[in-house]
């Protein structure tokens, strides 16, 4: 019988990646966009989907829905989030994640997430609550873990 490949991830690696995911949530919630340079690779890809596979196009009722939430670089997602999240108050909470080594320098992580968001200037469009899973791949570069790809699958949303 051929032994299964070792897909285990050390506690140190899990903690480093958890730290990156926490920093991602904090950067989004506090709008400290420069932190994305410490979180994601320049060519990181990010896509935000509904459970049925459709790409998300808005998070609040009345919001412009012409831009799909699919990005081919860190700079693209930061530019979009600056505009989208500027007037919003948000709180993102993630669990401790599950991890799988996919190569010597790459780890797949899945985090369950719940987010609350609403306009900071008025309550016209109310409040949004959503939840789902982040399916991330992190890559070791120069001794540090960085987000290589993110796929968020939203399984719950109420506007």
From TrEMBL:
Which InterPro entries does its entry note? NTF2-like_dom_sf, SnoaL-like
What region holds the SnoaL-like domain? 11-150
Q: What's one Pfam family the UniProt record gives for this protein? A: SnoaL_4
Source domain of life: Eukaryota
Name listed for the protein in its UniProt record? SnoaL-like domain-containing protein
Q: Which organism is it from?
A: Pyricularia grisea (Crabgrass-specific blast fungus)
């Amino acid at each position: 019988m051929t032994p299964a490949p070792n897909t285990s991830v050390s506690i140190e690696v899990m903690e480093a990646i958890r730290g990156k995911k926490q920093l991602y949530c904090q950067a989004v919630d506090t709008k400290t966009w420069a932190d994305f340079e410490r979180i994601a690779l320049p060519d990181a890809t990010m896509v935000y989907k509904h459970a049925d596979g459709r790409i998300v196009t808005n998070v609040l009722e009345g919001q412009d829905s012409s831009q799909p939430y699919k990005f081919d670089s860190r700079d693209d997602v930061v530019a979009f989030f600056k505009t989208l999240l500027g007037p919003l108050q948000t709180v993102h909470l993630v669990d401790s994640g599950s991890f799988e080594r996919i190569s010597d320098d790459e780890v797949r992580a899945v985090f369950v997430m719940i987010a609350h968001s609403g306009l900071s200037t008025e309550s016209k469009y109310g409040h949004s609550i959503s939840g789902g899973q982040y399916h991330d791949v992190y890559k070791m570069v120069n001794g540090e873990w960085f987000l290589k790809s993110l796929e968020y699958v939203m399984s719950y949303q109420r506007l």
